[in-house]
Specification:
five-stranded antiparallel beta sheet, 3 helices, rod-shaped
């Protein structure tokens, strides 16, 4: 008895569909992996830059004389995308007095203990990197808030 053989076009169609499906899945996985790696790298670069700027500001703040106008010092660090906050026994000074963003409690606790600390948070729907520390030889706290709106 003679059996009919499947037309080769049917087999080719299945192979083509399988190839297209596998290529699509692998392309999607590669895109997701690349996105995650680049995002992590950009956030780490932002943290490194912010930490360098904060440590520099802390060293400059350590050299302030008692007669220095702290509001002028803090205003120097305020720029587009950066907000500076100085907290000491006399109160709080912001680089932009109209904006008084809250400081994360966990960062404040670490800074009071003498560490340089950071946290990522959202303030007024803007993602921010908050880095703070104590200037050497003082009990004051200095915080710099960097906008990460372009990174997320």
């Amino acid at each position: 008895m003679h059996r009919p053989v499947a037309a080769p076009t049917r087999l080719r169609r299945r192979l083509t569909m399988s190839f297209v499906l596998v290529a699509g899945v692998l392309s999607g996985l590669l895109a997701v992996g690349t996105f995650a790696m680049v995002r992590t790298s950009r956030l780490q670069d932002s943290l490194d830059r912010g930490e360098r700027e904060t440590r520099t500001a802390l060293l400059l703040a350590a050299d302030l004389s008692p007669r220095t106008d702290v509001s002028q010092f803090v205003a120097r660090f305020g720029s587009p995308g950066v907000h500076a906050v100085w907290i000491d026994a006399d109160g709080r000074v912001d680089s932009d007095p109209a904006s008084r963003p809250p400081m994360p409690a966990n960062v404040r606790a670490l800074v009071r203990a003498g560490d340089v600390a950071y946290a990522r948070t959202e303030i007024a729907d803007v993602p921010r990197l908050v880095i703070g520390g104590r200037p050497p030889g003082t009990f004051a706290e200095l915080y710099l808030l960097f906008s990460e709106a372009g990174l997320r």
